[in-house]
From TrEMBL:
Region (Disordered): 191-211
Name of the protein described by the UniProt record: HTH-type transcriptional regulator PuuR
Organism: Devosia equisanguinis
Domain of life: Bacteria
Record keywords: DNA-binding
SUPFAM superfamilies, per database record: lambda repressor-like DNA-binding domains, RmlC-like cupins
One matching Pfam family: Cupin_2
């Protein structure tokens, strides 16, 4: 149980929902999640995945970093060296994201290198735009619109993000993929002055640091 006065993830989501005059049912419907799931998040009983948090944030007309105490600080720069990448993970059993910074304001493309633990399976999601994936190492199974696409290192996948899609690492080793797409999970220059939100297990790694 949280004893700190710092607002929790669930408290912040509930406050934003009420600010918009939405019911739990409204938020569940808009985010494609169940009423019970939203209720558990707001009461800090369940911790959402990054995909679910993204869906909830979109439904609440905001960005994911609004709800996190340590959202990655992203910068606009044409060149980013490997030691300078912002890294983010929701926990040891979740993927680790290395963000490749947007080169200019309002850039349409976002990119990251994702380290996916063995056995990890993402949730099914759909959103506007396009996804392009290049598998650097390991094996992955991608499911797009109900069709399975197994990939090995060197394989690529390009599809409309409006189609329902998910991915899973069926192997015994961490898979590493390069993802390029139009979905923006975090805002640029994530607000350093925004109220901090407590989310147990969240890790923002410093440049060059690994989990």
């Amino acid at each position: 149980m949280e004893t700190s006065t710092t607002p929790t993830l669930g408290t912040r989501i509930r406050a934003r929902r009420r600010e918009l005059g939405l019911t739990v049912y409204d938020l569940a419907k808009a985010s494609g999640r169940t009423v019970g799931f939203i209720s558990q998040i707001e009461r800090d009983i369940s911790r959402p995945s990054l995909a679910s948090l993204y869906a909830v944030a979109r439904a609440l007309d905001t960005n994911v970093d609004r709800f996190l105490s340590e959202a990655p600080q992203r910068q606009h720069q044409m060149v980013t060296h490997s030691s300078e990448r912002a890294k983010f993970s929701l926990g040891a059993t979740e993927p680790l994201y290395e963000f490749l910074e947007p080169g200019f304001a309002d850039a349409a493309l976002n990119a990251c290198i994702t380290h996916i633990p063995p056995g990890f399976a993402s949730e099914v999601m759909r959103h506007e735009g396009e996804d392009f994936v290049y598998l650097i190492s390991g094996t992955m199974l991608y499911v797009v619109d109900g069709v399975e696409y197994p990939l090995e290192a060197g394989g690529t996948l390009h599809f409309s993000s409006s189609l329902p899609h998910m991915s899973r690492n069926p192997g015994q080793e961490v898979a590493i993929e390069l993802w390029v797409g139009t979905m923006r999970v975090f805002s640029d220059n994530a607000r350093p002055n925004a109220p901090s939100i407590s989310l147990p297990g969240t890790q923002q790694l410093q440049p060059g640091e690994t989990s």
